[in-house]
Fold this sequence. Notes:
Elements: H1 2-17, E1 33-37, E2 40-42, E3 51-60, E4 66-74, E5 78-85, E6 99-101, E7 105-108, E8 113-122, E9 131-142, E10 150-152, E11 166-168, E12 178-180, E13 182-185, H2 191-211
Parallel strand pairs: 1-12, 2-13
Antiparallel strand pairs: 1-3, 3-9, 4-8, 4-11, 5-9, 6-8, 7-8, 10-13
Amino acid sequence: MKKGIALLFMITALLLVHPAFAADPTEPHNADAMWIEPSVIDITGVSIGYRFNVTVWINLTVISAGWQFRMLYFNDLLNATRIGYTAGSKSDFFQNLTTMPVTPQFVVMNDTYSYALHGESWLFGDYRSPGYGSLSWVEFEVMAAPPFTCELDISSDHHPPTSKTYALTPTLAEIPLNVYDNTIYPEYPSLLAIVLLNLAFLVALVAAKKKK
């Protein structure tokens, strides 16, 4: 009995340290695409310090040899606390290949924006055939009391051939992608609210880049 309780405790502890991720997306996108799941997160009723995870997925029609994403967020509202590959030491997408892991980065860009950066590449000869899979999970902490609305943005930095969010062919050429972000809201927003949020985010991001 005691051994059973101890085993259950160990399994629970491991799940808390290494979140488990499904092998199939819940919000699939047609290739070629990279996206965040869930696409929307409801923070109604949560308090400062609340934590949640998102997962980045990819779906490709061509062979690939590497990927990276840069996830922008408002640093007065959220804080990225942890990043990990979805299959432990590598991504689910590259799990059958020998890969070169990349240490995640958490960078404060300015008073408004920060970003989380993660990536991975093949190491020896074998490439990833066309298909889909999860790449990386990111944990965030809520830093301000809701209600507020914001985005986790990986699409702004996809602009081949000089992207920070990308997938690469074996010749290291960027694969053009449709990239989809995540919206965080206090209650289900109207379509107009989402459109206005996107416009405000893009305007602020362009202004911030011009100051650099």
